[in-house]
Q: What sequence folds into this?
């Protein structure tokens, strides 16, 4: 197992470089980059750009000569100003040199500064990490703690009334988009049209740090209630049905009949034999569930409930073409995804020692 883990760790490097290289190449052809963003501000198509340019005194230096450059809307601007913008954003260097510098900095976890704010990228990520952690961790806990026992119960009582009506609820919950259910919860319980029981924005109240420790816990979950309910529906439904189908497949296999013929009770067969085999597919889906719940899955919910998490940070960075934030979050998400995938393989062997990755080609 040690050699397999070492090979997987070494494979993370070229995989991560490949992901970043493809993304970097795509961005080179995407219109509306940071230089164009500032040009739009200067030509009256956006806000004030003076604060975005180092040495703002040169901003008003225009020329009547057309600048036949590569940036849309740059006509009428001083070519020196365009060159200054390119240098500030790092576009005065060849793409390969910029990519290699970026990867060298990222290898040392130096993610630089945002193009359009005075914060470093790592500070922006740190400030929004508690929101994403709160949503992702609690969603995984709730979905697995509830869905796995429910899925086992449904598999054991397949075709019963309990299985039918719970399946109906699960299908409805899966069909309703989380953001739509979130809007419904706001209308009903967050001062929309009926009740004003829950807060509409933020992870904690403004006076959170002045509260006693037990009121802090209450306040924290009071703010999380509606977002967690909205996000848990799809994860809850998927994990429940996956667990049920996995256990049904195992229950119908010949070794279950043999175990029962030897005198083992249904409970012994279920938890000593079926459980180990059926849980493998649940574990296999954990990395994807983790990444989805922790990062991308909460994007719409973060916007609806005004929660400044990593999903919202990445979304607005893409909209504003804030490339340091875009590439840094992509790098971190990809790295975590690869590491979590390796961890799931290790858990595989703990659940079922018969699995030996040493005998397989990576």
A:
């Amino acid at each position: 197992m040690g050699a397999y883990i070492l090979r997987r760790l070494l494979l993370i490097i070229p995989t991560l470089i490949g992901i970043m290289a493809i993304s970097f190449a795509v961005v080179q052809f995407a219109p509306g980059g940071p230089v164009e963003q500032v040009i739009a501000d200067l030509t009256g198509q956006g806000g004030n750009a003076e604060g975005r340019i180092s040495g703002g005194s040169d901003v008003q230096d225009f020329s009547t000569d057309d600048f036949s450059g590569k940036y849309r809307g740059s006509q009428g601007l001083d070519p020196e100003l365009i060159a200054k913008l390119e240098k500030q954003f790092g576009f005065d260097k060849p793409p390969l040199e910029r990519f290699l510098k970026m990867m060298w900095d990222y290898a040392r976890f130096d993610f630089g500064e945002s193009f359009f704010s005075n914060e470093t990228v790592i500070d922006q990520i740190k400030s929004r990490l508690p929101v994403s952690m709160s949503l992702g961790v609690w969603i995984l806990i709730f979905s697995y703690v509830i869905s796995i026992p429910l899925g086992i119960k449904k598999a054991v009582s397949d075709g019963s009334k309990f299985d039918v009506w719970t399946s109906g609820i699960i299908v409805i919950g899966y069909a309703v988009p989380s953001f739509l259910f979130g809007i419904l919860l706001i209308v009903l319980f967050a001062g929309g049209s009926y009740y004003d029981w829950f807060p509409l924005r933020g992870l904690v109240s403004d006076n959170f740090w002045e509260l006693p420790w037990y009121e802090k816990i209450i306040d924290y979950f009071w703010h999380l209630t509606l977002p967690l309910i909205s996000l848990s529906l799809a994860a809850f439904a998927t994990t429940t049905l996956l667990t049920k189908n996995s256990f049904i497949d195992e229950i119908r296999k010949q070794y279950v009949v043999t175990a029962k013929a030897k005198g083992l009770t249904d409970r012994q067969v279920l938890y000593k034999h079926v459980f180990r085999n059926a849980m493998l597919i649940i574990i296999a889906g954990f990395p994807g569930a983790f990444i989805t719940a922790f990062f991308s899955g909460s994007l719409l919910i973060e916007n609806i409930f005004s929660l400044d998490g990593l999903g919202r940070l990445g979304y607005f960075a893409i909209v504003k073409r804030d490339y340091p934030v875009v590439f840094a979050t992509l790098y971190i998400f990809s790295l975590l995804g690869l590491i979590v995938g390796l961890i799931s393989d290790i858990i595989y062997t703990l659940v079922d020692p018969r699995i030996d990755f040493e005998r397989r080609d990576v």
User: Anything to note?
Assistant: Residues 47-68 have pLDDT under 50 and may be disordered. The two ends are 12 Å apart (CA to CA). DSSP finds 14 helices and no strands in the chain. Residues 213-251 form the longest helix (39 residues).
